[in-house]
Specification:
61% helix, mainly alpha
Length: 152
């Protein structure tokens, strides 16, 4: 009895897959236009809509960064481990004072913010890559070292 139930389940899944494929194949241009419009609307959203950018940090590591920002750079939001706009505004204040950041204090961790972060990380946290504004593996590894808890 068991093999027969398995066979019916597989046959049912094949039928569902066939119906889904047929539905997509006959969806027509109305569906395609809707999908294209939806993608365009998403692409048109401002960068701030991304909400957080932890660059590979765990929540605990990002909380360490937020505590540093709260202690020294005017961060007043919650210590939640999500590096959002206000976390990055506070970080940009630090980077502007010491690491050559000259952009707006807007909370957007874009290319210029990352370049300044890379200068900080190169000075004390073992970053040896190019100052290129790309948060690649080397930048992320050094940022993790920056975010590691200090000695207790």
């Amino acid at each position: 009895m068991r093999p027969n139930a398995l066979g019916r389940t597989i046959a049912g899944l094949v039928a569902v897959a066939g119906l889904a494929a047929g539905s997509v194949a006959t969806a027509g241009t109305g569906f395609a236009a809707t999908a294209t419009t939806a993608r365009s609307a998403v692409a048109a959203q401002p960068a701030a809509a991304a909400a957080t950018q932890n660059f590979g940090l765990t929540t605990a590591e990002a909380k360490n960064v937020q505590e540093f920002l709260a202690d020294y750079w005017g961060y007043t939001d919650s210590i939640d481990g999500q590096l959002g706009t206000n976390s990055w505004k506070a970080f940009q204040r630090c980077l502007a004072k010491y690491w050559g950041y000259t952009g707006a204090i807007d909370g957007d961790p874009g290319t210029n913010t990352i370049k300044a972060l890379q200068r900080l990380l190169a000075d004390d946290y073992g970053y040896t890559g190019a100052i290129d504004g790309v948060a690649g593996a080397g930048t992320r590894a050094a940022f993790k070292r920056f975010a590691a808890p200090g000695p207790a």
